[in-house]
From TrEMBL:
The keyword Oxidoreductase applies. It comes from uncultured Eubacteriales bacterium. It comes from the Bacteria. InterPro entries: D-isomer_2-hydroxyacid_DH, D-isomer_2_OHA_DH_cat_dom, D-isomer_DH_CS, D-isomer_DH_CS1, D-isomer_DH_NAD-bd, NAD(P)-bd_dom_sf. GO terms for cellular component: cytosol. This is Phosphoglycerate dehydrogenase. Residues 111-283 form the D-isomer specific 2-hydroxyacid dehydrogenase NAD-binding domain. One of its GO terms (molecular function) is NAD binding. The keyword NAD applies. It holds the Pfam family 2-Hacid_dh. Residues 15-302 form the D-isomer specific 2-hydroxyacid dehydrogenase catalytic domain. Belongs to the D-isomer specific 2-hydroxyacid dehydrogenase family. Keywords: NAD, Oxidoreductase.
Length: 307
């Protein structure tokens, strides 16, 4: 049996996962490009594979159809928006996720983006390196109101961290757990409440038809002029043209974006703005999270391949 491994960080902190696959009698094909594979790259490498450990590389119906032997897809992460689940189901291909493996790492990064945007840490660093030592006035984080859209494991960890800064936490999730909310002082809110009332808005939603471009010009217009918008979830949830227009106009205070609809983004406006902090979809890329995801994805793949 042959398996493809695409994530760049798979095995980086724990090379033993490759040994585990090989000891199970599997031939391992690696992504040697140093980046995210495109459809043609996936089709070429996956053609005669029985299984795949996949990150954010495309696994649409066309890619799946190009791999007639494919029996198992082990997602290195939790979001499956890059996988055509219907096509996998129709073929009887098992799809697994590494639920919980990176939740705290992503929550940490969301908080890092909040702090970096609010205190203009990246812009100040850049000015200092150019010999500009003037003081730049920024905005407070402590005692702010944060709105969390998507209140699963990551959203809850963000709330816990925010409360350490004495923030008031509003949250929205279609699957609301009232008992948890009451026990942890979380205020249930509609998305509209969050847009209108919150100093900071943090996104932790899957990319689904109902969440695609859910933050557009209309929603941004409802936000406070000193609002901070952070996305460590999925590209496509925000209408990026609308956000760029708002950032250029100073309509909101700033944004921290780790997930784009196109990675890296081709719109050059992103690279000229000082009121946005950019991430390379790296919120989950810590040594601990990579180790957890690697081991869990490996175990999931071996199980689904009957190894």
């Amino acid at each position: 049996m042959k398996v493809l491994v695409t994530p760049r960080s798979y095995g980086k902190t724990d090379p033993q996962v490759f040994e585990t696959l090989q000891n199970a009698g599997l031939e391992v094909v690696r992504n040697e490009t140093g980046g995210i594979l495109d459809k043609e790259g996936m089709k070429a490498l996956l053609a005669d594979c029985d299984g795949v450990v996949v990150g954010v590389d495309p696994m649409d119906a066309e890619v799946i159809a190009s791999a007639p032997k494919l029996k198992a897809i082990a997602k290195y992460g939790v979001g499956v928006d890059n996988i055509d689940m219907d096509a996998a189901k129709a073929r009887g291909i098992a799809v697994s996720r590494t639920v919980g493996a990176n939740s705290e790492a992503v929550a940490d990064y969301a908080m890092a983006l909040i702090m970096a945007v609010a205190r203009k840490a990246v812009a100040i660093d850049s000015h200092c390196r150019q010999g500009d030592w003037k003081k730049i006035t920024t905005r407070d984080v402590s005692h702010a109101t944060i709105g969390i859209l998507g209140f699963g494991a990551i959203g809850r960890f963000v709330a816990k961290r925010a409360q350490g800064f004495n923030m008031t936490v509003l949250a929205h999730d279609p699957l609301w757990d009232e008992e948890y909310a009451v026990a942890h002082n979380i205020i249930r809110a509609t998305p509209e409440d969050i847009y209108e009332k919150c100093d900071i808005i943090s996104l932790h939603l899957p990319l689904l038809p109902e969440t695609k471009n859910m933050i557009g010009a209309e929603q941004i217009a409802q936000m406070r002029p000193d609002a901070i918008l952070v996305n460590t979830a999925r590209g496509g949830i925000i209408d990026e043209n609308a956000l760029l227009d708002a950032l250029e106009a100073g309509r909101i205070y700033g944004a921290g974006i780790d997930a784009f609809s196109e990675e890296p983004p081709s719109d050059q406006r992103w690279y000229a703005l000082e009121n946005v902090v950019l991430g390379s979809h790296c919120a989950a890329s810590t040594a601990g999270a990579s180790l957890n995801m690697g081991r869990m994805a490996t175990a999931n793949l071996l199980r689904d391949l009957g190894k």
